[in-house]
Specification:
779 residues, three-stranded antiparallel sheet, 6% strand, disordered N terminus
Length: 779
């Protein structure tokens, strides 16, 4: 779609389009639907987003519905509110009567008519336009108003449709385009058509299509900006336009001399909106440039307010959203805001002009530092899920706050403190590469011994270990121990010992691993600290005991950790203990119970977006699938595990020699059972699954046939968990209620019940309940 200014209004009925109309099929349909049920419909949106073109295209398509026609009224050229009715009367060619521009004369002319009036560019006359529109529809039942404005008219009965920018590709789609996959984008189509109008024969090939898509993404899909950029490639190569640093609107300074001043350049469009704002709105708009990505109201209130100019952000932020300066996105009860890139660049210029930008950038950093440290303190128990979700949409702001700290003289120590406080978020959310990048930069920027450095060193050592980089991990962890010892930081020393233990275990030094882990756990016990990391120590001990062949100790350590973790409603370390238990049960060839433990772990890890954890669970499930005679499932699970750990920059199973050898053995068996081509096909199918599809596949029930059921009267051996489930079945609880009572998933309960029925030979829950009530073997 073209920008708002490409119209030549006529006296009535039609407006000529001087350029072709591109895309917007969904928007046209949506506006027509709303127009059919509203007397006043206002199209809102930022300047250049295409409100006028959309209004006129809709008017053109519905013209047959209005027997007395359609009038287009352009209000852009007037500045006096008293001239609104006169301008409308002139557009309607009302010349008779003593006061042709009076509302009574206007109403008398429209009385009895069935017509549509398009009021274009109302934002600078908003009160007058709202008053006149309301009077027209009140006095003329057959007349409707279709208005365009950067903010709603604010009258009773008004319906508002926010015109979005044109569709652009996200980063994932751009990556697919670079890989040669086809895509469609309205924004790219518009660029191609407008470029062809200034460069005869211009077309976009596959290579340049991706480049144009990236440019349209940078321009936020704003039609005016895209059209101006298309004109510029007449004199500038596309790659130079893309590589240009700084605000793009400085480049888009020509191309539409025939339009109104506010639409001749992108800067002109933004200037128009800025000048329509009040001083406090202009001030807040400038300050909002410190945010990266999106932000919520709490952040605005904490970062951008002050006692003198913007003491209360509530009304101002609402007004900026109404004026289409801020884009809003609703997710349940939560509202997030965002500035389009061009509007943000403009705001950053205004903030620099105000001369106090450093204050607001520091406020931004301080707010997200507090948020990071609060998330760390709440990373135990049920707060894990809540805070992980709380921080997910703030990734860009966290990066911006860290960048400020590490690039501003005197702030490096604070950057080190912030980076290390995000250890849980980065790890549990599958953002290890992000975490390692920022921790590396922070450690290089501030090399002096400190508590912050000791902590950051064990965190990055842990991350390096998870990613299979054991040599680097050991170096970081040894330095953490040395720094911690030099400053007397016993907590950092304990965590450095704990993760050194796991590094030694992965390297095959099981005795050394056990010694280090036991030393760390003794310190944790002495300190009385109970948190996700101390719980993780129990899961790590279970892992070492399993590889050492001490399976009873392994399962006992895992079960203790799981029980404590569930009592605290902790998910992260608990899920790792479930993985360790699953590995030990697999080693004992108790495949059904191992599968259940691993699936429980996956469900917890999914809730945290711990994709690395999911990958190691799917690896063991692949081994179980072979033992249960399902090589197809095994091949797909191996593909899933390979993709997920690769996304995290990790090696399969942390690069543990013992586990990798086992994995290679099972992969070889799977390949032999399926044959090479079939194995590759199924493995690639697993690699290509989206995360939610991979989870769904991993959690499927096993396809092996149950063993021969034991007769009801025979002694039946149930596992401890099956006994718990069986007793609750006897109490009459549903699967959902059992899941809530035991803090496990409903799917896991269903699996337990199915196995209990198979073991006991019963066909119904009522039979099972009666048997449990009289059979003491369940006790």
């Amino acid at each position: 779609m073209a920008a708002d200014n490409q119209l030549v209004p006529t006296v009535r009925g039609f407006s000529c389009e001087v350029t072709s109309f591109v895309g917007r099929r969904n928007e046209v349909a949506a506006v027509k639907t709303r127009l059919s049920g509203s007397r006043i419909l206002t199209l809102t949106g930022f300047g250049g987003v295409g409100k006028t073109r959309l209004a006129c295209r809709v008017a053109s398509e519905v013209r047959r519905s209005y027997t007395d026609g359609i009038w287009f009224v352009d209000l852009a050229s007037i500045s006096n509110p008293e001239l609104v009715t006169t301008t409308i009367a002139e557009a309607l060619d009302i010349r008779e009567g003593p006061s042709p521009g009076h509302i009574h004369t206007l109403s008398e002319f429209l009385s009895g008519r069935h017509a549509l009036i398009v009021l274009d560019n109302c934002e600078h006359l908003i009160e007058a336009c709202g008053t006149v529109a309301a009077e027209i529809v009140r006095r003329s039942p057959g007349v409707q108003i279709l208005a365009t404005s950067r903010e709603p008219l604010g009258v009773l009965g008004e319906t508002v449709f926010e015109v979005p920018p044109m569709s652009v590709l996200d980063d994932a789609q751009l990556a697919e385009g670079r890989e040669g996959k086809s895509f469609h984008s309205e924004a790219v189509d518009l660029f191609e058509q407008r470029a062809a109008s200034v460069i005869p024969g211009y077309t976009i090939d596959d290579e340049s299509r991706v480049a144009v898509a990236r440019l349209c993404q940078r321009l936020d899909g704003i039609p005016l900006a895209i059209e101006l950029a298309a004109v510029r490639i007449r004199s500038l190569p596309l790659d130079r336009v893309l590589s240009r640093e700084g605000p793009l609107f400085d480049l888009l300074t020509q191309g539409n001399r025939g339009g109104p001043v506010r639409h001749q350049t992108l800067r002109g469009a933004i200037d128009w909106s800025f000048n329509l704002c009040s001083p406090d709105e202009q001030t807040l708009w400038a300050r909002l440039s410190v945010f990266a990505g999106g932000f919520d109201f709490d952040a605005v209130e904490s970062v951008c307010t002050d006692p003198e100019i913007v003491p209360d952000a509530f009304e101002v932020i609402s007004s900026l959203a109404e004026k289409s300066i801020i884009v809003t996105a609703h997710s349940g009860p939560t509202v997030r805001y965002k500035l389009l890139e061009s509007i943000k660049d403009y705001a950053a210029e205004k903030l620099a002009e105000q001369g106090d930008g450093e204050t607001w950038h520091r406020n931004h950093r301080d707010y997200f530092l507090r948020l990071s440290e609060l998330s760390e303190s709440r990373s135990l128990g049920s707060g894990q899920l809540e805070w992980n979700r709380r921080l997910q949409p703030e990734r860009a702001n966290l990066r911006s706050a860290l960048e400020y700290s590490l690039s501003t003289p005197g702030e490096a120590r604070t950057g080190l403190r912030m980076a290390s406080s995000l250890w849980f978020f980065w790890n549990a959310s599958g953002l290890l590469q992000d975490g390692r990048y920022w921790l590396t930069r922070a450690l290089e920027t501030d090399r002096q011994p400190s508590q912050e450095r000791a902590k950051a060193l064990w965190v990055i050592g842990w991350y390096a270990m998870i990613q299979g980089d054991n040599a680097t991990a050991k170096r970081y962890l040894l330095e953490s121990s040395a720094v911690a010892e030099s400053i007397g930081d016993r907590t950092a020393q304990a965590f450095a010992l704990q993760f050194r233990g796991t590094v030694e275990q992965i390297d095959g030094n099981l005795d050394g691993a056990l010694e280090l882990l036991n030393s760390a756990m003794k310190h944790h016990a002495a300190s009385g600290d109970v948190n996700s990391l101390t719980l993780l120590g129990g899961a790590q001990l279970a892992f070492v005991h399993c590889l050492s062949g001490n399976l009873d100790q392994s399962i006992a350590s895992a079960e203790d950790t799981i029980a404590l973790g569930k009592s605290l409603r902790e998910c992260f370390a608990t899920s790792w203990a479930m993985w360790s238990r699953g590995l030990a049960l697999w080693t004992r060839r108790e495949f059904p119970d191992a599968s259940d433990s691993l699936k429980e772990a996956i469900e917890l890890k999914q809730s945290l977006s711990d994709w690395l954890g999911v990958s190691v669970c799917t690896e063991i499930l692949a081994w179980i699938a072979i033992e249960e005679g399902n090589p197809v499932r095994s091949a797909r699970l191996l593909g899933i595990g390979r993709t997920l750990c690769g996304e995290m920059g990790s090696s399969p199973l942390f690069g543990s020699d013992a586990l990798v050898r086992t994995r290679n053995r099972y992969e070889k068996r799977t390949r032999q059972l399926l044959g090479g081509p079939a194995f590759e096909r199924e493995s690639r199918a697993g690699e290509g699954l989206e995360h939610h599809e991979a989870i769904e596949f991993a959690l499927q029930k096993r396809t092996s046939e149950p063993g021969t059921p034991a007769p009801p009267s025979a002694a039946v051996k149930l596992t401890p968990r099956e006994k718990d489930v069986a007793k609750l079945v006897a109490e009459g609880l549903t699967n959902k209620e059992i899941a809530e009572r035991l803090v496990i998933s409903r799917r896991t309960v269903e699996g337990h019940v199915d196995r209990i029925l198979a073991k006991t030979g019963h066909r119904s829950r009522s039979q099972l309940a009666a048997w449990i009530a009289r059979d003491e073997s369940v006790e």
